[in-house]
Amino acid sequence: VLAAPDDIHQLRQTIGHAVSRADLVISSGGLGPTEDDLNRQVFADIWQLDLAEDAEAVYLMRQRFEVRGRTMPDSNRVQALIPIGAKTLQNHQGTAPGFFLERTEQLPALLALPGPPRELKPMFLQQAISLLTPHVQGRVFSRLRVVHLFGQPESTVNEAVQGVFRWNPLVHVGILARNYGIDLRIHARSSSDAETRSLVEETEKRIRSLVPPAWIYGYDDDTMPAAVMELLLQADARLATAESCTGGLIAKLMTDMPGSSQVFSQGLVTYSNASKLDWLGVSPDLLEGPEAPGAVSAEVAEAMVRGLALRTRAEVCLSVTGIAGPDGGTPSKPVGTVFVGLSAFGIVSVHPLKLVSDREMNRNLASLSALDLARRALMSRLRGSLAQT
Amino acid sequence: VLAAPDDIHQLRQTIGHAVSRADLVISSGGLGPTEDDLNRQVFADIWQLDLAEDAEAVYLMRQRFEVRGRTMPDSNRVQALIPIGAKTLQNHQGTAPGFFLERTEQLPALLALPGPPRELKPMFLQQAISLLTPHVQGRVFSRLRVVHLFGQPESTVNEAVQGVFRWNPLVHVGILARNYGIDLRIHARSSSDAETRSLVEETEKRIRSLVPPAWIYGYDDDTMPAAVMELLLQADARLATAESCTGGLIAKLMTDMPGSSQVFSQGLVTYSNASKLDWLGVSPDLLEGPEAPGAVSAEVAEAMVRGLALRTRAEVCLSVTGIAGPDGGTPSKPVGTVFVGLSAFGIVSVHPLKLVSDREMNRNLASLSALDLARRALMSRLRGSLAQT
Hints:
The structure is a homodimer. By secondary structure, chain A is of the alpha+beta class.
């Protein structure tokens, strides 16, 4: 992997280096409309090909502007310039198309993709992969499976799954601390697709036998909010939130998902004391006064979630109050002190958290911890109703 | 810039390549406690140095666990192993310390940093830079200034500022489309600090003369939410939000900032029709029925923001309703149809948006557009009160 800044000399040198050593060069970025988008020109120079405008690309670009009620500035057309002989890869997520040049005797194959991930990824998966397949010889079947865990530090997970790291030389298991939890990445490679698949399955089974089931919230593209949404759908339940220190982050995470309106109906961001009183009916006796437990307390987390459950009638309610930092900490309630209130099918509980990171991570972990509590309550509920049938 | 996967052979090859070509090698990552954290060992091998435990690093690590009420697993101690003779860079944001090795006749200087940006950045800025300074010869003064713009496409900004791209060979101006707007990056380099500074200032002045003032919302580390917070503080005003399609994202963006409780008191995520009625008093006649404008309409955005202003008495209120996608679009209201309601110091207005991206970007742009409307209203207000004094 090579990287170079938007500078014509450094780009020429870096791309030249890649061309001299590889059979296939994949580039990302530098295809936009502006002064510092230079890749197109450097490729044309090195491959000694003239550039010509791709009419379909211009049409698609113009359409993008028209949908927004704007006229396309002429300077955008430079993006539609493609080396003659290259296959254009149309961009349906942005304006700059990519292109592909077949390998020749002197030069490697070239796949030029736009930089923004939201444009690059679909273009690669939907258009580029099929072009690259003929270039791959002596096929190796490779599979990746990611197991997502939450609630334990990396070192604890690492110790629990020691037995799986070297059970088979064709399988590599990696462990990664993410800002959303711990990932175990199972990567298997072999000469048969069936073998690769069974190696991954066997590894996953071994991991599941080594850790408590509740530690695992999902696989591959699963996320904590998606796990909660799936369980809410199964339980035919709705989630409502009342957030203080997380300030809308839980609501944001839930509504990031298409279809979340089926399970998430409403949320409150009661950041001030007055709003906890106005919207949730939290008693002023709990919030203020020398004897009051104060806004960051188990009592207020409980009053918030009880008020929310009463007003919304949602089956699962979460409240969060705490000190995200960097300011606001005291000796008895340092930064990272957080209380989560949970009301699940009529049962109310409060869970203290002690977080030790910065504001962003504290808010993130408080939100994920709250969702994890909802996840565990929903799992218990579903197991219970399964037992009854 | 070179990158390599967590594989001992590829790491050896990549680091070996760097060592043979550079006077200073900077690495990030691979210093953690797990099986695939291999950089420490590869460095020890290539530099032919034994590893020894750094007692302070073990102490700091253990402390991090104790604050959270946990016991440190012994497997964490491997992170405290540092090549003998290296200077340890303690990690105050995570567990793995970094280290620095001075250049020798045979080997380049080595700076090994942990991978997570939240650990790497402070370690680099607070500890590593001063170690690197003696290695930099023939000093060049370099300055970067970023101008943030919102509300115009990249190509429009590009055309407006054409005159600034090549006004001086010591200044490079780059333009970048970010998911939070358009950035103009002014980068000046010269042999004197004063000259570099004045080149940046002159370029910034030229940019300001080429675009309307309202396009620019900030510089360098400024963000749209921070610009709104600053203006709210100046106007001694509070912001409240009622969000449907953005689902709490505006509240999240505001409360990301320390000190936001001074200006942001509360927010509602009224995702369902019932919650728009319950919390904001939006009339059911607007929401349902064959003749009703429906939840995504200028009428409902207006009713939401009026209800919010009435109930919260906040000086600046924002409401957002729309179709973020991918589903829910109709021929008359396609995905990306969004209405923003603004109530600023008693004046109510509604602003339609037509967005053309995916769910995530549509929600992001709807939130930033709403905040941009609040920003412009606050600027007018502050200009007005300035004129009166």
